[in-house]
Design a protein that fits this description.
166 residues, Dihydrofolate Reductase, subunit A, 4 helices, 19% helix
């Protein structure tokens, strides 16, 4: 299964100065629980903001720079090749940034979405994507340093993803 996992502010902010502009320990724990044992696919800047491969997960980093390397990670020059590198036996989580989310959206079967109730200042935004073909299968209100809602959206079965769209 290919999923997007993202936390965004009310105004769609997902980053500021190469970092998350908030700290939600409960959401970070959920991220770890959901992704442990699976594969993460992310852009170079997202990877560099984390600084290292996350333990217990395979990491695929996308970079346009053919010379780029990241210790302990697979590197791909485009999303199509990145998807081919992913092990079909495990779930694949698209972890950002904004351009990677946009490129992968047509292939995604599920979205794990954390929506903060506050607007946050930032310089990277989750793209405006149509969620018409997704249905809400889970939602819960959460409290941390910022109140937020965690939701899971599933692509409707009648809509099929197509790898050829990329």
């Amino acid at each position: 299964m290919i999923s997007i996992i993202v936390a965004m502010a009310k105004n769609r902010v997902i980053g500021k100065n190469g970092q998350l502009p908030w700290e939600l320990s409960s959401d970070l724990l959920r991220f770890k629980q959901l992704t442990m044992g699976h594969t993460l696919l992310m852009g170079r800047r997202t990877f560099e903001s984390i600084g290292q491969p996350l333990p217990g997960r395979r990491t695929i980093v996308l970079s346009r720079d053919p010379e780029y390397s990241a210790a302990g990670c697979d590197v791909s020059s485009d999303i199509k090749l990145g998807l081919l590198l992913a092990d079909s036996a495990t779930d694949l989580f698209i972890c950002g940034g904004a351009e990677i989310y946009r490129q992968a959206f047509s292939l995604v079967e599920r979205i794990y979405l954390t929506e903060l109730e506050d607007e946050i200042e930032g310089d990277v935004f989750f793209p405006e994507l149509s969620l018409r073909e997704f249905q809400l299968i889970h939602t819960e209100q959460c409290k941390d340093t910022i109140n937020y809602r965690f939701s899971i959206l599933q692509r409707e079965l009648s809509v099929e993803s197509n790898y050829e769209e990329i």
